[in-house]
Amino acid sequence: MQVVKEYVQRWYESGLDPDEYVCHYKQGNLVDIESTATGKRQTVLTFCTNDVLGLVQDEAVKQAAIDAILQYGTSNSSCSVLSGRIDLHRQLEKEISEFKHLPHTQLFINAWMAMQALMDAFCHLAIPVPGFQHTRETLIMSDVLNHGCIVAAVANAGTRSGKMFSHSPRVRVRAYRHCDTEDLARKLRRYARPDDRIMVISDAVFSMDGDIAPLPDMLDVMENYDGSVLVMDEAHASGAIGATGRGIYEHFNILPQNAIERGIIPLIMTTFSKFAASAGAAISSHVAELIPLLNVSPTSIGTISLSPPLTAAALESIRQVRQSPELVQQLQSNSRYLRSRLIEQGFNAIGETNVIPVILPPDINPKIFGRLMLDNHGIWVSPIWFIAKPRVRITVNAIHTKEEIDSLVTAMVATRDILYKPMISA
Ligand SMILES: Cc1ncc(COP(=O)(O)O)c(C=O)c1O
Q1: Using an 8 Å Cβ cutoff, are 140 and 174 in contact?
Q2: Which of 80, 90, 376, 383 is a good FRET partner for 209, with 20 to 30 A between their CA atoms?
Q3: Across-strand partners of 348?
Q4: In angstroms, what is the span from residue 235 Cα to ligand 1's centroid?
Q5: Ligand 1 site, residue 236, Cβ cutoff 6 A
Q6: How far is the CA of 280 from the centre of ligand 1 (A)?
Q7: Does 59-323 match 2-46+325-419 at the fold level?
Q8: Which residue has the least CA distance to atom 15 on ligand 1?
Q9: What are phi and psi of 136, to 5 degrees?
Q10: Are the C-beta atoms of residues 244 and 252 closer than 8 Å to each other?
């Protein structure tokens, strides 16, 4: 532990530790927070929530969660294989399947569990089955900026074979350059062997850059590999992109069926922690046989199933989105408005979704930027300095008003005026 102590001490000294806040109350985008370092308490306007449609405090969503607790209690107290599912699970799976145009869906308690289950199921299958020999290697191509849940799951997939699953052939993982389909094509030509099972995996919307995976070009490349699998992580895409919030396929005006017709197997991961006012994840497919395999993966059997209130909140949220697509349109309009206002003011605001990263000069500590925003303007944005280029990450949602967005831009300009001169003049 000495190394840990010394490391953390140096970490604090160099100011790389994140500031911590505790929330006492929320109303819309107004949040009453307390700084754990200073004890200072203030009501701030948040631009760092993933509650993209503002459904966390929707009356029907809250009531659905309360009703579920009254009917089932707060927890299912086991996994679905050992103790069964609740009817709400079945309804939610059906609702997601309809929303994502893929008929079979399996729930998980979060994205990390879902991704791990997918790798275990797809790459390694489950237990050895008499009379079945799994001989084909898997090649996974992963965008270099994919979310940590993908990175962790594919890293595990690459090392598990021969350990937990001694019957499973090798899994080879290769990264391709961010959103670069030429690099994807080049690396597939270089690494794919004739008998490989091929999986390409990508965030649909990248969580730190706010940009969208080039799905049509990816399909063009993958068409050359019949039976290849395309996994889209729609954590930030669900409820946010596409005319009615159905995600990346709708954004590009296509259906998963179009991929299927071209010999590509589409898999979609949906998560509920952003648009669906809850927590949890789901994997959807048109291949019915994938579901029982996902259901017996270690991260399904070895952990709790999605709790009744979380399931009910997600279910009601998806119903709300389907009934009120104008929420999604409002989100998209707010995103366009804020991004264009920031660019107009000379900020380097990248991406194209409601995740709006503003890249800062390399010598500016984003934490200081964030603190000034809070202290001087009562506006909460996320400073990001780990791994990524230093930036302020802003997430706008459907319930931000134009006045609130304008006040954010004013505060950003005033904060920049204290810290540095704009790179591009307004
Ligand atoms: C692309 C992506 N995938 C997965 C996740 C994790 O989702 P969850 O917290 O809902 O499990 C996130 C969270 O930010 C994400 O951005």
Answers
A1: yes
A2: 376
A3: 359
A4: 5
A5: yes
A6: 10
A7: no
A8: 235
A9: -90, 135
A10: no
This model's pTM is above 0.90: yes
Mean pLDDT of all residues in 391-402 = 97
Buried b (16+ CB within 10 A) or exposed e, 117-139: bbbbbbbbbbeeeeeeebeebbb
In sign, the C-alpha dihedral spanning 4, 10, 13, 19 is: negative
Cα 111 to Cα 149: distance, rounded to the nearest angstrom: 7
Tens-digit pLDDT profile for residues 272-328:
999 999 999 999 999 999 999 999 988 888 899 999 999 999 999 999 999 999 999
Pocket test for ligand 1, best of 108, 207, 241, 393 (most atoms within 8 A of CB): 207
Q: What are phi and psi of 111, to 5 degrees?
A: -65, -35
Mapped onto helix, strand or coil, the DSSP state of residue 4 is: helix
Residue whose C-alpha is closest to residue 209's, from 399, 394, 417: 394
Report how far ligand 1's centroid is from the alpha carbon of 272 (Å). Answer: 9
Mutate to test the pocket of ligand 1, among 273, 278, 311, 382 (most ligand atoms within 8 A of CB): 273
Half-sphere exposure at residue 235, Cβ-oriented, CA atoms within 13 angstroms: 24
Indicate if ligand 1 lies below 6 Å from the C-beta of 273.
yes
- Domain spanning 59-323, CATH architecture: 3-Layer(aba) Sandwich (3.40)
Domain spans in the chain, listed from the N-terminal domain onward: 2-46+325-419, 59-323
Find out whether the beta carbon of 211 lies less than 6 Å from any atom of ligand 1. no
Q: Domain 2-46+325-419: give its CATH architecture.
A: Alpha-Beta Complex (3.90)
